[in-house]
Amino acid sequence: MLESLVTSKTRIKLLLKFFSHANSGYLRSLAKEFDESTNSVRVELNRLTEAGLLVSQEEGKTKVYKANEEHPFFTEIKNMVSKFLGLDDLMERIVRRMGDVEKAYIVGDYAKGIDSGTVHMILIGKELDREYLDFIREKTYEKVLRKVEVSIMETDPGDIQGILVYGK
């Protein structure tokens, strides 16, 4: 869906990153996260900033970007990204019911903006409700028409390549 509206894969990744959750990021971390060159990420960050969709601020010598919540189309773009992912409601429900979730990531194809039919998630937290996880795997397909695969980790290894959709 988004691929037909937005032709740049890097731009799609940035829109998914910034409009799926209150994420922020800086050039080098985004390039590493997306496995893209810093130049291609810089070009798209500049385009989205010039369009007013992103705002940036200096933190020391680093320029940090985030979605511009004051943009007239902020809500519409956020809704479009949520529909593309089909996971906004699902994520909220899973995180609420799983226990003490510290972070939740979407990884794999969806983190790259590709609708492959399978959503890969990583939940980080201690003593999470694994029985509920088995139950939700069955129900998820009925809700979002996508298979959901969830991995649980007790601690964040710090090198997860994906979109942080819950936590900080």
Structural overview:
InterPro entries: ArsR-like_HTH, WH-like_DNA-bd_sf, WH_DNA-bd_sf. It comes from Algoriphagus aquimarinus. This is PaaX-like protein. With 168 residues, the chain is an alpha+beta fold. It has two domains: 2-80, Orthogonal Bundle (Arc Repressor Mutant, subunit A), CATH 1.10.10; 86-166, GMP Synthetase, Chain A, domain 3. Helix content is 44%, strand content 25%. It is built from seven helices and seven strands. It has a four-stranded mixed beta sheet, with helices on one face. The longest helix is centred in the last third of the chain and has 15 residues, at 130-144. The chain is globular, with a radius of gyration of 16 Å.
Sum up the overall morphology in one term.
globular
Strand order within the widest sheet?
6-5-4-7
- The low-confidence runs, each spanning 5 or more residues with pLDDT under 50, are none
CATH architecture of the largest domain: 2-Layer Sandwich
Can you write the helix and strand succession as a string? HHEHHEEHHEEHEE
CATH secondary-structure class of the largest domain: Alpha Beta
Q: How many H/I helical runs?
A: 7
Q: What structural class is derived from the secondary structure elements?
A: alpha+beta
Overall pLDDT score: 82
Major sheet summary line = 4 strands, mixed
Strand content: 25-35%
Radius of gyration (Å): 16 Å
The total strand number stands at 7
> How much helix, percentage-wise, in residues?
40-55%
CATH topology of the largest domain: GMP Synthetase, Chain A, domain 3
Oligomeric state of this protein: single chain
Please give the domain count.
2
Distance between the termini: 29 Å
GO biological process, one term: regulation of DNA-templated transcription
InterPro entries: ArsR-like_HTH (IPR011991), WH-like_DNA-bd_sf (IPR036388), WH_DNA-bd_sf (IPR036390)
Protein name: PaaX-like protein
